[in-house]
Every structure is written in C-alpha cells, then in structure tokens.
Amino acid sequence: MKKIILILSIIAIATSSVFAQAKAKKPTIMVVPSDVWCKQNGFTKTFNNQGETVMVPDYKRAVQSDPTLLQVISQLNGMMAQRGFPLKNLESSLKTLEKQAADDNMRSSKTGGGVNLSPTDQLKMVAKADIWMQITYTVNSMGPRKSIQFNLQGLDAYTDKQVATAVGNGEPSFAASLPELMEEAVIAHIDNFSSTLMDYFDDLFANGREVVMRIKVWDDWGEDLETEDYGDDELGVVIEDWISDNTVNGVYNLTDGTENYMLFEQCRIQLTYMRKGKERAYDVRRWGSDLRKYLKSIGVESKRENDGLGSVTLWIGGK
C-alpha cells in the first residue's frame, strides 16, 4: 500500500510539473519608450506614407543619446526577466533593423513599387515581440531629493490594443540612482501588471490572435468578388467561407464588403501550427499565404502584402 501511495504521489507531482510547464509559457516582451516620452524629449522623425508625412518615435537616436533611457529599459527588462518573461532587447533589434535597411532600400516589386512600412512597423517585424511595454517617465527634483513618476502600458504588438497598465509615483530619495528609483516606483505594481499580461496571453492561446485581412481587386482583372464562376457561390462568399473555416471557433467580423473590397476584422487565428513534426509560430503572413494558395487551387491568382504584424492584404486577379 505504501508503494502504491508513493507511486501515485510521484505521478501526481510529475503531472503537476507538466501542467506548470505548459502554463509557464509567457509572451515575448520588448520595453520601448512611449510615443509621448519620445515627443517630449525630441526623439522623433518623419517618413512619407503614400504622400502623407507621418511622425514616429526615433528609438535609435533615443537609446544612443539618453543614457538614462537605457538604464530604465535595463531595469524593467530585469524585473520582467525575474518573473519569467522572454525578452527582446530594443537596442539589439535596432541593430538588426539597420542591417536590413540597405536591402529594403534596394527592394522593389515587379511593378516598381517600393517597400512601404513605417519604421515602427519594420521594428515590430524584426523584433517579433508579442507585447510592447511602453514606458513614460519623469524624474522630479525636490531640492536634493529625487522621485520618479511613471506610466507603463502593455500593448499587443499585433493590434496596438492596450492590454495592461500601471501608473505610479516613487518616494523621494536622496541617494537612489535612477534604476533604483524606477524599481521602487514600479515594484508595487509589477506583479499585477504581469498577471494581467498572462491573462491576456492565455486568452490568445485559447481563442487565437486577433488580426485583420483585406481583400482588394486589381482594376484590370475583368472579374470581381461577385463573380459566380467558383462553384455555386460568388467569389466573395467563397472567401468568407474560408475565413470562417480558418479562424479559431469561426470568430471574425466582415466589417465591409463590396464587389471590389472586403474587410475582415477581429479575426482570431491560431498562434502555432505543426510542420514536419515541430510546433512553429503561426502569424498573419502565413495565414494570408494559406488563403492565397487556396484561391490558386480554385483558379484565382492573388498577391499577398503584409501591413505590419497584424494585418495582411490580398490583391485578387494577379500578382
């Protein structure tokens, strides 16, 4: 009887360990200065987005010019690492992005179009973090004493939705360094912040990641999404059926639909898939490619274009 009890105890411990390991999978995080902080401190730049001038954070100049920012990021990285979250380093990701910039500047499409992504979108695609932790902070001086005021936001890198937040003020100190001030200010909030991130990530695993799919038609194709040559339904209906069959629990929203355009929002796609016996990351790029392949199988050519991490466009009628 004692041996049986011992065996059952070992099995229970092993089972608990397996469940704990499964539960322990955490979202990848990258700490970045917020848009507000970058604007307040003069670290912004502009880029041309199809004729419109857009202002974006200049992360490279910020990390190279403000040593206190690196200290704050390093401190937050350490606090999240202690809680088991995988981290992507902003400075390292910027270096990787810089290496790719020369290649992107030379790249063009078959029709002569250039790469059209914002610098922030390019960084997100290089870093591949699930969550961006945006930090806004101000160091206040009261005579010889200093304190720090902060606003920490957890943003889904794919949708830019805020999924966690922490706001607070640290106690004034005579001798504490900036990283110590940050830790003291954040420490009371970080566990609840981390717990909220995990709840959100668990929801992603259970219900899928939210992405956007746009369907557009080339004006020289000669057909449109109301063409009925594809089975018994219009092409638009065939595409919507595919979206329904290839989203988690069939969750999606057809926000707009005409003969030349369809907008699918709040589409929930799986986070992983199996390939050659290995679990691999599944993203909106591969999801768009799967739809492109399906359309090709029914005689419809299309071209896939990524719009950042969380959005993809299929141009119907050719490449």
In short:
With 319 residues, the chain is an alpha+beta fold. It has helices at residues 2-23, 35-40, 59-65, 67-82, 90-106, 119-127, 178-207, 235-245, 284-297, and strands at residues 29-33, 44-49, 52-57, 131-142, 145-156, 162-169, 209-217, 253-257, 261-269, 272-275, 278-281, 302-306, 311-316.
Could you characterize the architecture of this molecule?
This protein is of the alpha+beta class. It is 41% helix and 29% strand. It is built from nine helices and 13 strands. The protein has helices at 2-23, 35-40, 59-65, 67-82, 90-106, 119-127, 178-207, 235-245, 284-297; strands spanning 29-33, 44-49, 52-57, 131-142, 145-156, 162-169, 209-217, 253-257, 261-269, 272-275, 278-281, 302-306, 311-316. The strands form four sheets. A five-stranded mixed beta sheet has the order 8-9-7-13-12. Strands 1-4-5-6 form a four-stranded mixed beta sheet. A two-stranded antiparallel ribbon has the order 2-3. Residues 2-24 and 108-115 have low confidence and may be disordered.
The helix content is 40-55%
Span from first to last CA?
71 Å
Order of helices and strands: HEHEEHHHHEEEHEHEEEEHEE
* Shape annotation: elongated
Strand order of the largest sheet: 8-9-7-13-12
Let me know the number of strands. Answer: 13
User: What profile does the largest beta sheet have?
Assistant: 5 strands, mixed
* Mean of all residue-level pLDDT scores: 84
Could you tell me the strand content as a percent range? Answer: 25-35%
Structural class: alpha+beta
